[in-house]
Design a protein that fits this description.
mainly beta; 135 residues; 5-stranded antiparallel sheet
């Protein structure tokens, strides 16, 4: 059984204590369809006028033997700020076999924002965990 996620599924990235520029990043619960497992996340919205933004999504599974989260797939880093919603998808193959053990899957989104004044902030959002028997 994996440990609890170290953070929420939606995070706010603030570039300074004055909070002139902030963006919200999210990580959605993975989706399994056929032999594809996908993790989706990205920039949900921004306040102020960020000078630069980026987000990257990892699709991870929990390795019960080593007891660590392992990356199954990573998206390309996208550099567009919201609005509108900017999502990124990471996909991997996940095939069910009779008798396969249940595996925990999650999506993580790493988000970064830079304000017009050059101040930067970064945070990671962690999706709810999907438990499914596939490898």
């Amino acid at each position: 059984m994996p440990p609890p996620n170290p953070g929420p599924a939606e995070v706010e990235v603030v570039t300074s204590p004055e909070a002139v520029t902030a963006c919200y990043f999210n990580a959605l619960k993975p989706n399994h369809s056929g032999t594809r497992m996908t993790g989706t996340g990205g920039i949900k919205s921004c306040e102020g006028a960020p000078a630069a933004c980026s987000s990257e999504v990892d699709l991870e599974f929990y390795d019960n033997f080593s007891r660590v989260w392992m990356t199954a797939a990573s998206s390309a880093r996208q550099f567009m700020c919201a609005p509108p919603l900017r999502t990124t998808i990471a996909s991997a193959t996940c095939t069910n076999h009779p008798g396969d053990p249940t595996v925990a899957w999650r999506t993580t989104t790493l988000g970064s924002v830079v304000s017009a004044q050059g101040q930067a902030g970064t945070a990671t959002a962690y999706s709810p965990i999907l438990y499914i028997a596939c490898a």
